[in-house]
Design goal:
The chain is an alpha/beta fold and 185 residues long. It has a single domain, classed as Vaccinia Virus protein VP39 (Rossmann fold). It is built from seven helices and seven strands. Strand 1, helix 2 and strand 2 form a beta-alpha-beta unit. The longest helix has 17 residues. The protein binds S-adenosylmethionine. S-adenosylmethionine (SAM) binds next to strand 2.
Length: 185
């Protein structure tokens, strides 16, 4: 178990607090669905977990945690940059933990997430940032907080607030801007 696993419960509670009463919720890059199940259990909300990897999606579906909330959660295999199976304005909140840095094309995925988010819907992003312990451990490409902020702005998110919840983990809250982007007019 690494420090990030140890901090997971703390991050999950913080995400639930930020989501509040927003319902339904999309957990993008849900992996094995731990956060998906947690949000359904804690908030009593409907939560859709989407992940590009079907291997992860099929894991842990039969745990008691998962069974308890099976009427509130559903899982779909899908790519954040192409959520054709979801109509516009479907979700009141979107959450993503440790996923942004894995998107092949972040601007495209962020625009697609914005499409399926309701007007004024919340978008919560938790991710590792560039230059920290996670980068040393896994050697993946991470972004600076400034880069994350500009990507979100470019994609049409507003009211962006960021805080470090650990040395190299940033917690970002934002909303869908109600102003149309240039290419949407
Ligand atoms: C580091 S894991 C985090 C999983 C989960 N959020 C958690 O905290 O346990 C990143 C996840 O993002 C998924 N992912 C990467 N790119 C994706 C994309 N374009 N669309 C949807 N899921 C994606 C991966 O398959 C993986 O399950």
């Amino acid at each position: 178990m690494n420090i990030y696993d140890e901090m997971e419960p703390q991050f999950y509670h913080k995400i639930a607090e930020a989501v509040g009463k927003a319902n339904p919720i999309l957990d993008i890059g849900c992996g094995e669905g731990r956060l998906t199940n947690f949000l359904a259990r804690t908030l009593g909300s409907e939560v859709c977990g989407v992940d590009i990897s079907d291997l992860k999606l099929t894991k842990d579906r039969e745990t008691s945690d998962a069974r308890d909330v099976s009427d509130l959660v559903w899982f779909v295999k899908g790519d954040a940059s192409q959520l054709d199976f979801l109509v516009n304005d479907s979700f009141a909140a979107i959450v993503s933990i440790y996923v942004l840095h894995e998107f092949m094309n972040p601007p495209e995925s962020l625009r697609e997430l914005r499409r399926v988010l309701k007007a004024s819907g919340k978008f919560i992003v938790v991710d590792f940032v560039k230059g920290g312990e996670a980068e040393r451990l896994w050697a993946e490409r991470y972004y600076t907080p400034c880069e994350i902020e500009s990507m979100l702005k470019e994609a049409g998110f507003t009211d962006i607030a960021m805080e470090f919840v650990y040395d190299d983990v940033v917690f970002v809250t934002s909303r869908m801007s109600c102003t149309r982007l240039k290419h949407e007019t």
